Amino acid sequence: DQQVKQNSPSLSVQEGRISILNCDYTNSMFDYFLWYKKYPAEGPTFLISISSIKDKNEDGRFTVFLNKSAKHLSLHIVPSQPGDSAVYFCAATSTTSGTYKYIFGTGTRLKVLA
Amino acid sequence: DTAVSQTPKYLVTQMGNDKSIKCEQNLGHDTMYWYKQDSKKFLKIMFSYNNKELIINETVPNRFSPKSPDKAHLNLHINSLELGDSAVYFCASSQFPVSDTQYFGPGTRLTVL
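Structure tokens for the assembled complex are given below, as produced in the milestone run.
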């Protein structure tokens, strides 16, 4: 039962353009969401998060949008840079369920073309 | 001055063997985790300790046993290794359980032959 889905396994974008990575979830109890970036042979690194009380959170070139009614979040990277080429994971959790765990998607491999 | 370190980085072993993976964090965090990333790239939580107490214990074969000697260390011992145990195992830590950024180690690629 995949509660967090990233349906696009890969995405290619030209340098300087916008990258949009999508994530869908099924559990309506999820109220906190994160994006992680992962380079080969390294562990995931935290990128940006959003609580369900917000619909947008911005940090520099990275913006996460949350659509609770659609159970959908997206990560926008503007402008995309070659160093952004990595695998991006979204993760979700319920802060009220007491389970203390994140559910991760399977990742989207982003390639930014110079 | 690596924040979360794991040893070894690669581990190749035969079926039936027992092996351990070590994890250490120097961030002063109270919570540590073990994740498994399988061949389908799912990153799944296995265990979590908060202040040396087990708070997450997913449906994992009891051949897997975590041990937390102190808040800075969380080791993973695996008995009677099976082919299906081949995966990348990530250790992570955070200041508090849930709703907090988790810092991941570089991963240990385990290959069972």
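Residues 4-8+16-105 of chain B form a domain with the Immunoglobulin-like fold (CATH 2.60.40.10). Chain B touches chain A at residues 4, 40-45, 48, 50, 55-56, 58, 90, 92, 97-99, 101-107 (CB under 8 Å). Further analysis is deferred to the final report.
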